[in-house]
Amino acid sequence: MILIGLTGGMGSGKSSVSARLVARGAVLIDADAITRSLQVPGQAVFDKMVERFGDAILDVDGSLNRQAVADVVFSDPDALADLNAIVHPAVGAEIARRLEVESGTDHVVVLDVPLLVESGRSDLAALVVVDVDPEVAVDRLVRFRGVRADDARARMAKQASREERLALADVVIDNSGSEADLNLEVERLWRWIDGLR
């Protein structure tokens, strides 16, 4: 297994890059997707979140209202710490389980984790950072994901800085251009990863 860490600030385009890597044969372990799967009714993480934050974080259908959670935790450091204590261990355990499944293979495994720099993982063959100007990222989040600009900036402020991510990167993917530009960047990355085999 070749374990490639993929990270970048919110709205940088990690998902666009990971989808292109999967199309080339990589196996994706997506921390955000794992988190969403653990935050559905009936899951222990969901139950603990409701126990801690109350029904105010639920939609009328009983599912999690992510914006309501964000509104609570990104303005209250103690609430954010409590949320992280509920979610991070469960996500970490599922990531470890999936890595164990892949450990005996020759697959390129892409570990897509928003807070990868903050986690201090030391088992990566390489760290790939998807980079874009933070204001471009905010604009994308507002236009394409319906995130409020102030909420996007508050969340980004809780992440490693652009400079911190770039300082640790083995490869930087510039996602400030067109789709065609991004395709070329990912093709360059894939050739570089091939050289690690």
Q: From the alpha-carbon coordinates, what is the Rg to the nearest angstrom?
A: 17 Å
Strand order of the largest sheet: 2-3-1-4-5
**In total, how many domains does the architecture comprise?**
2
The percent of residues in helical segments reads 55-70%
Distance between the termini: 9 Å
Tally of strands: 5
Strand count, sense and barrel status of the largest sheet are: 5 strands, parallel
Return the CATH topology of the largest domain: Rossmann fold
N-to-C SSE string, H for helix and E for strand: EHEHHHHEHEHHHEH
Ranges with pLDDT <50 over ≥5 residues? none
Mean pLDDT figure? 92
Separate helix tally: 10
Class by alpha and beta content:
alpha/beta
Tell me the overall shape: globular
CATH superfamily of the largest domain: P-loop containing nucleotide triphosphate hydrolases
Strand content: 5-15%
Mind telling me the CATH class of the largest domain? Alpha Beta
What is the CATH architecture annotation of the largest domain? 3-Layer(aba) Sandwich
